[in-house]
Input
Amino acid sequence: MICRPPASLCGNAEAPYLRSQPHLLTSLQHAALLHGRVPGSAAGHVAIATMVPGEGWREKAYPACELAEVLPYYAGRSDVYLSTQRFWDWRRIARLAECGALAVDVDFHKVERLRDSHPLGALEDCRVALERGRMPQPSIAVASGRGLYLLWLHEPVPRQALPRWNVCQRELWEILKPIGADRGALDAARMLRLIGTRHSRTGVIVEALTPPGAVWDFDDLADEVLPYARAEIADFRIRRAARAAKRPPERRRVPSHKFNVETLWEARLTDLQTPRRLRWFGDLPPGQRDYWMFLAANAMSYLTPPERLDRELYALAREAAGWHDPERSRKEYEGRAARRRAEARRMAAKDVPFKEIAKGPSASPSIASTAMYFASHCRVYPLYGGVASPEGGTGSAATLPARGQ
Output
């Protein structure tokens, strides 16, 4: 195991804190833990959002190197959120630059037996659960006003590590689920409340419950969290390959332990985004959009939790095709959604091969919209537990076409 203490933090307190706060951390120090442990080394942008009464959600993206200048403006304000990861410009998984921390949001106030608990009491329950599950303790715990969230700081890793990062998130969620861990807060685009700001409903300042702990090497942290370390998985596959060598040679070859279906589709998404940026400077030409969106939607379905996939696909459509969905009446929206569901069901019933669907715009008059629905509602999600049916329920993988056909 290789981990190190966090780099020294600087900054003064910019907001009043509760007297009960055991560990004073400022907004600048919070941001430095996530995005500036080595000054000038963080790549990409950090999202900061506020919930403004009467105006709703307001979000901006700032270069990580500018946080020291920006954060004093937000310190002490109400309902301010900070992205835990970094992105290229705006906050979407398709634009993910680096992951620097595992995070679990624990809404213990939603658990009957813990509803009236103090955050320190809920934190102790989390520690006990992690110890029983043989999981590492968090690097820092933060009381968010009504709940708390836990962070496991690690060295930055690029988007290529996202599939393994997602599995680590799910393993930690499984352990903390009885204490109120939020399943909807597992994706890499999640934002959490900024230390030193105020929760508007409770009037409580967001505060650190523990001092900053060790910063992990990501591979070491993943080995601690996952049921099997990479070395053990490699050993399993070597043994399987040895057994396969004794069988008839027509058996398929065992793939490298460094690759799986999720890393394959992440690489395909990168291959889709890079030529688009270099050849067309971002905007796809007419005639290429439906084909590109279908392939990108399939790739995103392997990298994003099902409940967040619609948001990611709409963002991809805006980025690549300049697509904007105008506001329409509820009846018109529901009619359009019903047509997409019907078309997706017809495609699934016919078991249309992937290569036939993806031939281009001539394959279907609405491949882009159908692909978004098809990837959202008719795909298998091995990392996130179950199969989504076109009607929104669950079903058997045998009843749906395999992904990537």
Observations:
- The CA atoms of residues 106 and 282 lie 38 Å apart.
